[in-house]
């Protein structure tokens, strides 16, 4: 191919500074170095974690950056030492590495890995190194992926090879939101058949958690959101009951406790708000209730009275639904192709990369579930 071994000049949406619109720029993407893969991004979702970095986290060392971490694409070229991937492979970049060698990768208990930006840079949300430059400046790769770009370069530890028949403008959502919510219910909460669940926040992550609760056999799934426009969609994924905290003057944990004879068996926080995290925990039944934090924030402490935990509740957290990406993502792509997992139903809008700021605005206003940005032809 004409581009192999050369710098590629291409279009990307650059976040030059926090709290400002992204700017479509021509960037330079260096060739892949040893153990790296250069990927032509075909499609990418916009996830709330992109908005978190831009508008909430706003860490000064995390800019300028190319955001986006929920993408799918095609391998363009590979660097020395890469044998797992070849040009033309369909892939999903992974924001949680899987080196397969560290103590975490070797343990079945976790999907954490000692490699990659997530090992020690949760504030900055980007690795120190980058293969991007623009106007003579280094541009960081958000969550090690940067899918709001026509091309990106990632370490082979951060790539999952998927079924070549998979439609990339759909399965890109398995790069974050759908796996995150589904896995939080199935892998982290370990929702049980016949149980009662509550899901707080009905974006793509929360709706995927609803789908996971249903797949695990929950009999009652209470969908909680302050935006009642989300309830119709939650029904599609299996929610049985709907609660808008704004309709109640009592604390929401009390409302849920009264609905469920003392609290739910499992709750999942998919908002990223420490107050909601507390409510989700306190909505669980004493004795065995399990609450999982999925929403992303690293700005404030979350707290509760110790008696909540002494009384037998468990508070957990989950990143990327607990899936080890190289194994979990291809499996979920197969489950989607076999119609066992829904993906299309999350997509409310389709746009081009140029319209990324419109997509961000839609999410800010709660007017979408997922917008898929079509970046390059398949
Ligand atoms: N842990 C992970 O690996 C991981 C991965 C992806 C996303 N996330 C995080 O998950 C969260 C959800 O992401 P998303 O893309 O679905 O976002 P989203 O913006 O599409 O959805 C959030 C939903 O929460 C609702 N909400 C806001 N305040 C609420 C409240 N007080 N009570 C109930 N509902 C409330 C909103 O109305 C909205 O429907 C974000 O914090 C995101 O950063 C975490
Ligand atoms: Zn995400
Ligand atoms: Zn590892």
Automatic annotation (TrEMBL):
Its EC number is 1.1.1.1, 1.1.1.284. Keywords: Metal-binding, NAD, Oxidoreductase, Zinc. It comes from the Eukaryota. SUPFAM superfamilies: GroES-like, NAD(P)-binding Rossmann-fold domains. It comes from Sander lucioperca (Pike-perch). It catalyses: S-(hydroxymethyl)glutathione + NADP(+) = S-formylglutathione + NADPH + H(+); a primary alcohol + NAD(+) = an aldehyde + NADH + H(+); S-(hydroxymethyl)glutathione + NAD(+) = S-formylglutathione + NADH + H(+); a secondary alcohol + NAD(+) = a ketone + NADH + H(+). Gene3D superfamilies: Medium-chain alcohol dehydrogenases, catalytic domain (3.90.180.10), NAD(P)-binding Rossmann-like Domain (3.40.50.720). The keyword Zinc applies. Its cofactor is Zn(2+). One of its GO terms (cellular component) is cytosol. SMART domains: PKS_ER. The keyword Ubl conjugation does not apply. Residues 17-373 form the Enoyl reductase (ER) domain. Belongs to the zinc-containing alcohol dehydrogenase family. Class-III subfamily. GO terms for biological process: formaldehyde catabolic process. One of its GO terms (molecular function) is zinc ion binding. Pfam families: ADH_N, ADH_zinc_N. This is S-(hydroxymethyl)glutathione dehydrogenase.
């Amino acid at each position: 191919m004409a581009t192999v071994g050369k710098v590629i000049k291409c279009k990307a949406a650059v976040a030059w500074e926090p709290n400002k619109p992204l700017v479509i720029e021509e960037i330079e993407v260096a060739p892949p170095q040893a153990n790296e893969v250069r990927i032509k991004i075909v499609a990418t979702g916009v996830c709330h974690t992109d908005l978190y970095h831009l508008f909430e986290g706003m860490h000064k060392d995390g800019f300028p950056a190319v955001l986006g971490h929920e993408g799918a694409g095609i391998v363009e070229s590979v660097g020395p030492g890469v044998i797992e991937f070849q040009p033309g492979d369909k892939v999903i970049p992974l924001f949680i590495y899987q080196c397969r060698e560290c103590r975490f990768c070797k343990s079945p208990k976790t999907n954490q890995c000692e490699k990659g930006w997530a090992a020690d840079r949760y504030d900055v949300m980007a690795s120190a190194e980058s293969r991007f430059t623009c106007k003579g400046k280094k541009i960081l790769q958000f969550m090690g992926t940067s899918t709001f770009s026509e091309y990106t370069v990632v370490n082979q530890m951060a790539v999952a090879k998927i079924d070549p028949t998979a439609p990339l403008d759909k399965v890109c959502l398995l790069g974050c939101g759908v796996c995150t919510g589904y896995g939080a219910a199935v892998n982290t909460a370990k929702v049980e058949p016949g149980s009662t669940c509550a899901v707080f926040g009905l974006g793509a992550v929360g709706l995927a958690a609803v789908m996971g609760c249903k797949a695990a056999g929950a009999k009652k799934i209470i969908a909680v959101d302050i935006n009642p426009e989300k309830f119709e969609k939650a029904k599609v994924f299996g929610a049985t009951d709907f609660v808008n905290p704004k309709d109640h003057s009592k604390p929401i944990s009390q409302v849920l406790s009264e609905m469920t004879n003392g609290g739910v068996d499992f709750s999942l926080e998919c908002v990223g708000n420490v107050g909601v995290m507390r409510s989700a925990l306190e909505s669980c039944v004493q004795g065995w209730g399990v609450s999982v934090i999925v929403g992303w924030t690293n700005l404030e402490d979350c707290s509760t009275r110790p008696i909540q935990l002494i009384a037998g509740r468990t508070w957990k957290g989950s990143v990327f639904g607990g899936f080890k990406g190289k194994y979990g993502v291809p499996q979920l792509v197969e489950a989607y192709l076999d119609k066992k997992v829904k993906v299309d139903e999350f997509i409310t809008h389709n746009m081009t990369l140029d319209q990324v700021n419109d997509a961000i605005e839609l999410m800010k206003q709660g007017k979408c579930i997922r917008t898929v940005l079509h970046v390059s032809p398949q």
